[in-house]
Amino acid sequence: MIEETNINKSVFDVFPELESERLLFEAYTKKDAQTLLNLRSNKAISKYMDTTIPKRIEDTEQRIEGYIKAFKEGKGITWALIEKENNTIIGDFAIHHIDKQNSRGEIGYILHPDFWGKGYMTEALTTLINFGFKDLNLHSFSANVNLENVNSKTLLLKFGFKLEALFRENFYYNGQFLDSEIYCLLQSDLK
């Protein structure tokens, strides 16, 4: 029998909507498919992603269905990041690949380039780290980062994430094998 840690499974009873100073964290719905298509097909964003770039609204509708399914199964939570001032989706943030046995969740995020350099990801990551450790009761977060994504690595290091591993040519994407770095933050790192 696999021993499970103390992840707070009640988090998955009702989708957890969160709020920070300038952002709302809400569930995606099918009505957001066009906005998500615009975000995920943006070249500045997609150049660091290791997933297929959506070409049709049906692609992002399927992605949103996947987010909903992952939440219902307790495997992940993906939030639309909404700027309060304009009530506009400007990106998203996820805790996915939740490993209940080891109380670990992988984070992933995207932000529209118009909002880069304005502290939105710092604000979002602060909110999500607090949620993950306090509400979900995770032991650690991991982040899988494209080596060329300097902004993402800088953000993670700012929060105390440590480089755990370099995986050489560990995934095939867009016709080539790519390297990635894995970063980790333990709950005890914040004490």
From TrEMBL:
The keyword Nucleotide-binding does not apply. One of its GO terms (molecular function) is acyltransferase activity, transferring groups other than amino-acyl groups. Transmembrane segments: none annotated. This is Ribosomal-protein-alanine N-acetyltransferase. It holds the Pfam family Acetyltransf_3. Keywords: Transferase. It comes from the Bacteria. Gene3D superfamilies: 3.40.630.30. SUPFAM superfamilies: Acyl-CoA N-acyltransferases (Nat) (SSF55729). Residues 23-179 form the N-acetyltransferase domain. It comes from Olleya namhaensis.
